[in-house]
Amino acid sequence: MDLDMFREGHSSAVASADALRELMDLTQVGRYTFRVGPTTTSPDRGEIDVARVTITVLDDTAMVQSFSIDISGEVVLNAEPEVVEVPRGDQAVLPGYPATVRVRLYPDREPDRRQVVRDVRDVRGGPSIHPVSRSVRPGFILDNLPFDREILSAALTTQQGLRHVTIPEDFSEPAPGWAAGYDKQMGRTPSAREPFTTYDAAMATLRTALHPAF
Q1: Integer Cα distance of 124 and 76 in angstroms
Q2: For 106-151, how does the pLDDT look when each residue is reduced to its tens digit (9 = 90+)?
Q3: Which helix (H) or strand (E) holds 185?
Q4: How far is 144 from 148, CA to CA, in rounded Å?
Q5: 63 pLDDT exceeds 60?
Q6: Residues 195, 200, 206, 212: is their CA dihedral positive or negative?
Q7: Looking at residue 89, what DSSP letter applies?
Q8: Nearest-angstrom CA–CA distance, 212 and 214
């Protein structure tokens, strides 16, 4: 229900959001019209410049759906974007609706890597709203998605500078009882599998996988 985007070469999230509105507002796809709402910002975003617009999807004058787009500023690419064709997900023949959509992705699955920066910082003792889920995510990402250590290392260095954070040298339990909470959560997660079913094993795997990216 939400997308994360940026406009290459532009540092202002608000300016990029305004440009997106100019390009997209009143766009028609098949029978649907897309209306782009006003740009909003949130002080809760903290270390990075992010603006948001809400998209309302209309069928004639009736609203059928809405979703949000977060537009980031000050994004630095550490490699060229990937261009992929994403299938629509069905086999129906619908006039006006292409079977695939061409999408440009952050290099080396950069959205996940940026999330890893936040998550690893949280795992190593930084603030976190959902500490257990934050600690699970880096392990699942690194276990399931291929990555280039050189690009990852460059991305982490870039993000530390942009976000004004420093990733500590070693993983540690953020607070007493935190590891036990992780183990409990994994114990009731059907998709959990070794070595991410226990905190100690998961952290050992992360250390091995991320070295020498940090």
Answers
A1: 24
A2: 664 444 444 444 444 444 444 333 444 445 566 666 666 667 777 7
A3: helix 178-187
A4: 13
A5: yes
A6: negative
A7: S
A8: 5
Non-local (6+) Cβ contacts of 43 within 8 A are none
Position 156, amino acid? L
In which region does residue 194 sit, left (phi positive, over 0), alpha (psi from -120 to 50) or beta (all else)? beta
CB count in 10 Å sphere of residue 181: 14
Tokens at 79, concatenated: 């490699």
Q: What is the mean pLDDT of residues 37-56?
A: 82
H or E segment at 70?
strand 62-72
How many CB atoms are closer than 10 A to CB 188? 7
Sign (positive/negative) of CA torsion 120, 137, 54, 107?
A: positive
* Residue of 102 and 159 predicted with greater confidence: 102
Cβ-Cβ contacts under 8 Å for 86 (sequence gap 6 or more): 100, 101, 102, 103
180: Cβ contacts below 8 Å, ≥ 6 apart: 199
Strands (E), 76-127: 82-87, 100-105
Enumerate residues 6+ apart whose C-beta is below 8 A from 129.
none
Nearest-5° Cα angle at 206, 160 to 124: 50
Residue 129: the pLDDT is 35
Q: What is the CA radius of gyration of the chain?
A: 20
